[in-house]
């Protein structure tokens, strides 16, 4: 019977582990050993990881890989990816290589605007609120100067504060809708600090505002928080080539181009397909976002909201054949940072950014968008030709063999065997049994 715990965050790491494994694990000794086995050998590095979050017991490993040969705006990148799904890096690498000989990827940043909002209640004369806002706007900006000073020196800061009337949704509800330029920082802390300052200043100034009645003076702030929906922090990634240049051994270029356009059209119109289609894009996006220490939940939330911007959930990518040219492109909102956050703290994040030639946030937006586009191209290419399972299961083979406890020698034999045979759970099990019984050819 498990019991609640008091003051857990104050326990030492060993006390936490002991409490946990005794309460929840079938084999406490083994569970404790598993947690300790994944500690970093250098206690300083481990301490740094411990301090990222509360109640750290161990580290959770994800594979860190690179997809080489990405030609983006004439520059060649090896893109770091942190992801567990077997086929993602292979697919990205394949798409990179495909487009390397066809002019590579182009990427353009369309905007870098970040958003934050102060949500508040005001009960009274609307015109008086608008007049008050006009007089107080400069004070709001001035009150945040200590926070914005350094950002302004580098060319960023607050772009605009707008009063938005939301009373049609909730009685008395208004917003300060604020936009920011945060340069190479993702900017969440910067934005939230500015917003909380705006909220305080707004309340204080309202109390002193002579034309307000007592009721009107009493502005009630509900919350102040950045928005992860950033449709104006947008990047475009694209590829194009003559349809005739799309062919490879297994594919007739005209049929392939048409099927690609049809596959995208299906995802534009059918949400069931669109979600999976976009999930494939996020395979590429998230893997780079995680490897570079950015917030993949923020990116996921913002990208999916953007996929619904026209009133229904739709494909993020677009494809067309125009005068014999195949064009494939995507626009996605990506609020990313290359300074701050984990960027200088996590050794692998630091290295990932070095591998990417220390990109600015704008360059990282381009790289990440290209990784997403490449992933979608690779997925659709498989789907409209061989089907996805062939490549997927090939990549999954080692996982299946590891699950079955295959030795290195057995793995070698069976990887060779499955070069020409179909991988499935059953076929791998059977082939391993055959090898073990000496029946293998
Ligand atoms: C699997 O992780 C992603 C795919 O399902 C994407 C797609 O269907 O386009 C292959």
UniProtKB/TrEMBL annotation:
A biological process from GO: coenzyme A metabolic process
GO molecular function: hydroxymethylglutaryl-CoA reductase (NADH) activity; hydroxymethylglutaryl-CoA reductase (NADPH) activity
The enzyme's E.C. designation: 1.1.1.88
Short name of any one Pfam family annotated for the protein: HMG-CoA_red
Sorted UniProt keywords: NAD, Oxidoreductase
Pathway as given in its UniProt record: Metabolic intermediate metabolism; (R)-mevalonate degradation; (S)-3-hydroxy-3-methylglutaryl-CoA from (R)-mevalonate: step 1/1
Top-rank taxon: Bacteria
Catalytic reaction annotation: (R)-mevalonate + 2 NAD(+) + CoA = (3S)-3-hydroxy-3-methylglutaryl-CoA + 2 NADH + 2 H(+)
Family note: Belongs to the HMG-CoA reductase family.
Protein name per Swiss-Prot or TrEMBL: 3-hydroxy-3-methylglutaryl coenzyme A reductase
Native source organism of the sequence: Flagellimonas lutaonensis
């Amino acid at each position: 019977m498990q019991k609640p715990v008091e003051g857990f965050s104050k326990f030492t790491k060993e006390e936490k582990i002991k409490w946990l494994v005794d309460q929840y694990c079938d084999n406490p000794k083994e569970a404790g050993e598993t947690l300790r086995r994944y500690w970093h050998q250098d206690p300083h590095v481990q301490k740094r990881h411990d301090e990222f979050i509360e109640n750290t017991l161990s580290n959770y490993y994800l594979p860190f890989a690179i997809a080489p040969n990405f030609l983006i705006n004439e520059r060649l990148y090896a893109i770091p990816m942190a992801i567990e799904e077997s086929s993602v890096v292979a697919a990205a690498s394949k798409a990179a290589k495909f487009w390397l000989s066809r002019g590579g990827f182009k990427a353009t940043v369309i905007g870098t605007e970040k958003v934050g909002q102060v949500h508040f209640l005001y009960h009274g004369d609307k015109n008086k609120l608008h007049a008050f806002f006009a007089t107080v706007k400069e004070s709001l900006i001035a009150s945040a100067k200590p926070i914005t000073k350094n950002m302004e020196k580098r060319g960023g800061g607050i772009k605009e504060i707008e009063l938005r009337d939301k009373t049609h949704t909730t009685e008395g509800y208004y917003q300060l809708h604020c936009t920011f330029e945060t340069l190479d920082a993702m900017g969440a802390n910067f934005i939230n600090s500015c917003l909380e300052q705006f909220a305080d200043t707004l309340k204080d100034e309202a109390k002193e505002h002579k034309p307000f009645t007592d009721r009107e003076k009493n502005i009630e702030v509900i919350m102040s928080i950045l928005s992860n929906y950033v449709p104006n922090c947008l990047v475009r990634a694209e590829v194009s080539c003559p349809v005739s240049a799309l062919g490879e051994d297994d594919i007739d270029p005209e049929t392939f181009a048409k099927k690609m356009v049809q596959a995208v059209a299906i995802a534009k119109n059918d949400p069931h397909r669109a979600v999976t289609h976009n999930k494939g894009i996020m395979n590429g996006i998230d893997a780079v976002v995680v490897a570079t220490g950015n917030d993949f939940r923020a990116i996921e939330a913002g990208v999916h909201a953007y996929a619904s911007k026209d009133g229904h959930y739709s494909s993020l990518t677009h494809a067309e054949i125009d005068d014999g040219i195949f064009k494939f492109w995507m626009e996605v909102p990506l609020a990313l940072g290359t300074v701050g956050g984990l960027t200088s703290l996590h050794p692998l994040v630091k290295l990932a950014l070095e591998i990417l030639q220390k990109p600015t946030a704008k360059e990282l937006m381009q790289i990440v968008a290209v990784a997403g586009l490449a992933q979608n191209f690779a997925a659709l290419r498989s789907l409209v030709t061989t089907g996805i399972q062939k490549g997927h299961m090939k990549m999954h083979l080692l996982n299946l063999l590891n699950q079955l406890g295959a030795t290195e020698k057995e793995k070698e034999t069976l990887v060779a065997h499955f070069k020409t045979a179909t991988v499935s759970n059953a076929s791998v099990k059977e082939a391993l049994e055959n090898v073990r019984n000496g029946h293998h050819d």
